[in-house]
Amino acid sequence: MKIEILPRDRVLEIDTDQWRRLAELSLFVNPFYEPWCLVPAIEWLQKEDEVYIVTAWENNQLIALFPIHVIKSKFGIAYLSLWQHLQCVICDPLCSDSSKLSKVFNYVLQKMNVSMMRIPTHSELSYGKKIDTSSVVFSSTRGAISNITDVKSHLDSLPSRVRLENKRIIKRLFKETNAIYSISNTSPNRSWMADYCQLEHLGWKKKVSGSILSTPEIEQYYQRIYNNSKDTGRMEFQGIFDGETLLAVSFRITSHNHAFEMKTSYNERYKKLYPGVVLEILNLIELSKSKFQFVDSSTSSDNHLINRLWPEQRNLASSQYFSRSLSGKLLKLLYRIKNRV
To answer: For the domain bounded by 148-310, which CATH number is listed?
Structure first.
């Protein structure tokens, strides 16, 4: 096996065809580590982060790829983390054979002369459990859909008070406005990215500098992935519009029949009509007609709206992987004692 650790400014040296092929073969779907998302992130986001891209090859085939971030603790001890920039919601590495990952991790730890690697927000069974003897694993959940065909029946089976409330707010919004619900799949000529950014920048996120347009680097990142997705349809938008007035807009990132719901924004002048909630309900109904195998809400586990409407919870994990050296074993023991694992 040939393993390379490339600094972030050499990301364009990676064979893009091999990279795309690996994404096709990867056991776990992660669009954020695919070239169309990761290259713009490397070029524009969090440039102060010391980031490297790890690649592993066998028989001239790329079998694993993931970015790592060198972090120094408050005690001055350096450790590694798979890079999770602020726009990334899952950190599964691209890998065609997860049994090879422990070898890759151990090589990287030895080469970078550190004893621990953090693996944030990953699929529960992707690798934390596979190499559990060298890991400390913490579990979490968030809203998800694993059976699209059940979404409509799930909405119909919600408690009667929830169903009545859903119908009431949908009816009220469309009665008091001339709104229409539209999606990018059937309205491809609309300026969807500009619409979303414009609406988001009108609200509270602008005041706290949290909108896409508040930060030139984040704006460039989203514009790049939006442009990269145009031919593949890997970004899908949904919105409620009253003529030229934007009431609510959302978008998701898709890859290999998986979808990650990314951002939703609503017009605060119409907040009494709950346009964001109405959009969420209509999006779920529209999802029930889709062909996705899995949909991730990409929200926190305590999101009230998602927990009220979405049918399932996705099991996630965050792992601390330790080297097999004496210092790694000692650090793992201290870590387990500190965190009562």
So the answer is: 3.40.630.30
Cut 0.85: pTM above it? yes
> Which overall architecture, per CATH, does domain 2-141+316-338 show?
3-Layer(aba) Sandwich (3.40)
Block mean pLDDT (10 aa), the chain, length 341: 96 97 94 98 96 97 97 81 96 91 92 91 67 70 93 93 96 97 94 96 90 96 95 94 96 96 96 97 95 94 93 90 80 74 52
Residue 39 has which token pair?
């290259």
Dihedral angle computed from the Cα positions of residues 78, 83, 86 and 87, in that order, rounded to the nearest 10 degrees: 180
Q: Is the dihedral of CA 79, 85, 86, 88 positive or negative?
A: negative
Q: Where in the chain is the domain with CATH 3.40.630.30?
A: 148-310
Residues 135, 339: Cα–Cα separation, whole Å: 13
Closest residue by Cα to residue 176 from 281, 277, 275: 275
